Amino acid sequence: MEILSSIQNGILTLEFNRPERKNAITAAMYQSMADALTAAETDTAVRAILLVGKPEIFTAGNDLEDFMKTAPAGGAIEDRSVYKFMMALSGATKPIVAAVAGNAVGIGTTLLMHCDLVYAADNAKFSMPFVQLGLCPEFASSLLLTQIAGYPRAAEKLMLGEAFGAQEALEMGLISKVLPVDALRAFAEGQAAKLVALPASSIRVTKELMKAARKAPTSVAIAAENIHFGKMLSSPEAKEAFMAFFQKRKPDFTQFA
Ligand SMILES: C/C=C/C(=O)SCCNC(=O)CCNC(=O)[C@H](O)C(C)(C)COP(=O)(O)OP(=O)(O)OC[C@H]1O[C@@H](n2cnc3c(N)ncnc32)[C@H](O)[C@@H]1OP(=O)(O)O
């Protein structure tokens, strides 16, 4: 099972479990998380959601082989499991806690902006190398990171795509606490348990109110990003970037105007 899913004491825990591929997320993994989140919406046994990886890796982002396979097929983004997962995550009415240790690449960082309580280990590394892959930001990261971190810092992270550590993520407001890697999971579970014990209706309304102002702009940003992202996935620049990754070499973008 590449996504471990369990419900215990009111907490739905979703755990990336593909360490041999650095927890890179395949279409099947997105689908299984989308299904679990959708089911959780109406399951009274679930009062909080916890998203975790392994102590050495959160996720290497979208599986790049999947990107190469699915790109030319095209089709509506709404039919793709990544879209179903991200819509289920961003539209979840129950509180979501994320705990990041190791690398959180691409969608691994983007998805955090749709969670509620976000904690990181001192070994966490965040990056959004969309431009480096010949792509563009996705799932409202172009909007939300700008709101969270301010334009100059967001531009640096989204244009240069360089990795940054937990301390910088804390300063920019992407996460709310840094913990020793060995303490991260227990701390996040404890925070989720606190949410479970609180009145679910108050949590639900608080979340709704807090997210109300960004709801419409988030949808607009996602739709605009999708148009570009879908086209860019099959661009020569992206193909060169994906091939270069698997051939363990630097991409050569100078061949493209
Ligand atoms: C809509 C969504 C958008 C996005 O998410 S865009 C972002 C896509 N993701 C990436 O570009 C990240 C690619 N991966 C990496 O940069 C690196 O990995 C890490 C920094 C995460 C870790 O580096 P290291 O510790 O040196 O591990 P390793 O040797 O690169 O990876 C171990 C094995 O895992 C495979 N792998 C890693 N990431 C992915 C991936 N994203 N998709 C498919 N496979 C991946 C490798 O190829 C390799 O495999 P082998 O052992 O056979 O050489």
UniProtKB/TrEMBL annotation:
Q: Which domain of life is it from?
A: Bacteria
SUPFAM superfamilies per the record? ClpP/crotonase
Q: Name one Pfam family in it.
A: ECH_1
Q: What is this protein's record name?
A: Enoyl-CoA hydratase
EC annotation from Swiss-Prot or TrEMBL: 4.2.1.17
Stored Gene3D superfamilies = 2-enoyl-CoA Hydratase, Chain A, domain 1
GO molecular function terms here?
enoyl-CoA hydratase activity
Species name: Duganella lactea
Query: Which UniProt keywords are listed?
Result: Isomerase, Lyase, Peroxisome
InterPro entries in the record: ClpP/crotonase-like_dom_sf (IPR029045), ECH/Chromodomain_protein (IPR051053), Enoyl-CoA_hydra/iso (IPR001753)
The main location class comes to other
Where in the cell? Answer: Peroxisome
